[in-house]
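fyi for ur records
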Amino acid sequence: MPLVITYDWMSESLLYQLARMNAGDMRIGLYKSLIAPTEDTDFAEIEPADFSGYSGPKPLTAWTANPGGRDTPRWRITHPAVIWTPTGITPGTVWGYYVFQDVTNKLWWAQERDSSITVGDGNTIPYVVIPTYTRRSEYPGDV
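which gave:
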């Protein structure tokens, strides 16, 4: 028989993870290297963005949870938008963003864009990321 994890446990474990994510040691940054992130991607492979105005990785400390339920099998932890504003002096390429643990530099996840974007090419249009962590219940009735 398969192991069945209850909705109560999904909710509790999500809230536990939320507390851990808001502990103050998660950061988000932009990267300029052309990599296709996988489960084996290492923090050292990330080449941070370097356009004028890029202030480096920013802390992620305001996550909120949407625990879902029987009618909402996708459970989400979201963070308000994180914004980097270029000065328009020196442009740079951005391929995606990465989230890591600040103290240990452990890479938690990275997301690559479909194609690179040039940021700060004579403009000051902000680069915005809205981090979202999603879990899905795999109950047979939900798929």
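Residues 12 and 118 are 41 Å apart (CA to CA). thats all i got for now
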